[in-house]
Design a protein that fits this description.
The chain is α/β, with parallel strands linked by helices and 420 residues long. It has helices spanning 22-34, 47-53, 57-71, 113-122, 143-171, 191-203, 229-250, 267-280, 291-303, 305-320, 322-326, 343-347, 351-358, 369-376, 388-395, 397-417, and strands spanning 10-15, 39-46, 78-84, 98-102, 128-130, 139-141, 177-181, 208-212, 257-260, 284-287. The protein folds into two domains: 10-290 and 409-417, Alpha-Beta Barrel (TIM Barrel); 294-396.
Length: 420
């Protein structure tokens, strides 16, 4: 297996739409470290978000470096080129040391028949009885079933290999971390499917350190998990078992671990995840992009006055342009339009009403998941306000900072690391 930059056991992906909250995000990680956790902060931003906001990958690197210097962070941290493809990766190469390779568009597209046959000849271990330690059932597979699985995923793995080698040629294999996203499919991968995927990655000589599989249920932006928690836990534990097996069987990096995308605010899953990680002595990469932007809004709303007025203005624009704003995120939001208040109603709210509707406290009867999801995907609206929004971020920095740090630490990091 190729050389690679090692990723720590517990890595925490943090998004920051406008690049203003790096210090306060890192402060949450510092608080986790004080509890004895070994947290690796990873600032991430996708090509789509850069294009929507007119930002550049160099700005994410600058934000991360400035936060680390300001707070005296002494351990590793990374900058993630999130959901990149071959046609978008080059702009990230000078500035990122973590690359999330997104090959969703190739999943389900058949590979060359000769390549499928070559895989089957190389991996006869998949045919017949397959026993994976710590999975409580034996799987019997036919050659036809494995051919079906390989046809679904091999081309995507080959594309991931092509992108990986492109980055390695430009950057050097020892200078970055590789993640592959396989979560944008219609149904969760079975243990056999995940094992086939990992065998494909090993054949491509990708030093894979995190993989994002598809789990059952809905992972909507900025709200809790929707689905059967017990089924998720079963799938999560089986995936951990597959990873342990694949590391040994295919000589993959010892640091290989699961990545949970849109993992922010999945409060009902954090307990089962924490216990499973403890049982397997495993790590995780959790992505929480988007929550910081919402905490900026909550901080402005708490400030009242012109801060609250800005949030009300953003909502009014968001409601008017909902179709445009939600379209790029249609598969990861569920907004009930009947639950959205009118713009005039929101303009009548005081700070307490706005914060209660927006802050993710599921036990609060005033919390409105549809309202929160719409605001979550409306992050480009502040650009229409000129300097008002960014001047307000500076004016109310202390209030916003408290919300950013407490949200990441109290609601996300602490529930996950308290027993790891």
């Amino acid at each position: 297996m190729n050389t690679y930059l090692h990723l720590g056991k517990f890595s925490f992906g943090m998004g920051d739409r406008f690049g203003q909250q790096g210090r306060f995000q890192l402060d949450a990680c510092l608080r986790a470290v004080k509890l004895g956790a070994e947290v690796v902060p990873v600032w991430n931003k996708s090509n789509r978000e850069h294009n929507l906001l007119g930002t550049e990958p160099s700005q994410v690197r600058a934000e991360a470096d400035a936060a680390v210097q300001a707070l005296g962070w002494k351990t590793p941290y990374h900058v993630d080129a999130d959901h990149i493809r071959l046609d978008t990766v080059d702009r990230f190469i000078p500035h990122s040391d973590f690359f999330t390779i997104d090959v969703a568009d190739s999943i389900g597209k058949a590979a060359w028949a000769a390549d499928v046959e070559k895989f089957i000849r190389r991996h006869r271990e998949f045919i017949g009885e397959l026993v994976i330690p710590r999975i409580d059932h034996t799987t019997i597979t036919t050659e036809a079933e494995i051919v079906r699985i390989v046809n679904k995923y091999l081309l995507a793995a080959q594309e991931a290999g092509e992108i990986y080698r492109h980055i390695a040629k430009a950057k050097g294999a020892a200078n970055f971390i590789t993640e592959v996203s396989m979560d944008e499919t219609n149904s969760p991968q079975t243990p056999v499917e995940l094992l086939v995927i990992l065998a494909c990655m090993a054949d491509e000589q990708i030093p894979l350190q995190t993989i994002a599989p598809k789990f059952t249920g809905r992972f909507n932006k900025g709200v809790d998990y929707v689905g059967n928690v017990r089924q998720f836990e079963k799938e999560f534990r089986e995936d951990l078992a597959v990873i342990d097996f694949a590391i040994e069987r295919y000589n993959l990096p010892k640091s290989l671990k699961l990545s949970v995308h849109s993992g922010s605010d999945k409060f009902s899953l954090y307990g089962p995840i924490r216990l499973a990680l403890k049982d397997f002595n495993a790590g995780i990469h959790l992505k929480t992009a988007g929550t910081t932007w919402l905490e900026e809004l909550i901080g402005l709303a708490e400030a009242g006055g012109d801060g609250l007025k800005i949030v009300q203005d953003i909502y009014a624009i968001a409601v008017e342009n909902m179709a445009e704003l939600t379209q790029p995120y249609a598969t990861v939001i569920d907004i009930d339009e009947t639950k959205l208040p009118g713009a005039a109603t929101v303009r009548s709210w005081d700070s307490g009403q706005m914060v209660a509707a927006l802050r993710h406290v599921p036990t609060n009867p005033s919390f409105n998941p549809s309202f929160r999801q719409l605001m979550h995907v409306s992050f480009k609206v502040p650009l229409r306000l000129g300097d008002r929004y960014f001047q307000a971020l500076k004016k109310y920095e202390l209030i916003i900072a408290r919300n950013v740090t407490e949200n990441l630490f109290m609601r996300h990091l602490r529930p996950l690391i308290s027993e790891i």
